[in-house]
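Open question from group meeting: does this chain pack into something compact, or does most of it stay loose? Before anyone orders reagents, we agreed to write out a predicted structure and look at it together. Recording both the input and the output here so the notebook holds the full record.
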Amino acid sequence: MIIARTRQELSQTLKSLSKKPGKLSLIPTMGNLHDGHLSLVKMAKLHSTKTIATIFVNPLQFGKNEDYDKYPRTLDLDIEKLEKEECDILFVPINQDEVFQDINKIKQIDSGPLGSELCGKLRPNHFNGVLTVVHKIFDMIKPDIAIFGAKDFQQQILVKRMAHSYFPDLTIIKGPTIRSKSGLALSSRNNYLSRKDLILASNLFKCLQNSIKSYKNNKDINEIIQNALDFLKSKNLIVDYFELRDNELNIIEKNYHIGKKIFLGSVTINNTRLIDNIEF
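Structure tokens returned:
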């Protein structure tokens, strides 16, 4: 695996790679890689002949009192994992100047109304920061394919919309959520939780499953949502939101919606916020 630490090294590596036929898949990450990230690398290898992963903890997507400084950074271990998966290139910028030449002057991409809903309501401007860095990485690497996990469902919808506007030839692929034995969606922020907290957190997945069963049994949406809120609170989870939407994240207000739907939830445990969803 070739590791590029600067824009120049990345450019030289990509020029060399471009002489070889085939498609290039990109897996953007913030590091602290787990099996969820690695499943995206595996998926990339099925869809292309060359793979590139990026590791960059993007300061633009963290709020004032969020965990940018303590976000887990495990570069040596991440490199080992990517090498085992036979990733071709890793771009891990040596500093933020290799991504943003002047972070204080950069014009951020507007994530629109959806960027202010669900997770965006809890984290103002978060998705503007996400789209800005992803746009920058797309522009630097110019991949044929980019792969994002379904756990961050709102993120991948917004990225897909941004790519449609700015990179119309880029294919965005959604990878499935990877879970622990308890059903808890894998996340780097799970590292903040104790063993007891992890058991509690798995109730979000159970709640999503129960809500789908209730919907299929024709229970009223408002009743399903209220039951979900009551269940999560009974497990001592702080509920940030729990909603039913279609698979483009438009609000569903009535039962018998035709087409794919998704229950999405966010809970907080000891100041750690976790998200999950199930599409059906």
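Observations to bring back to the group:
The chain has a mean pLDDT of 96.
Residues 150 and 176 are 5 Å apart (CA to CA).
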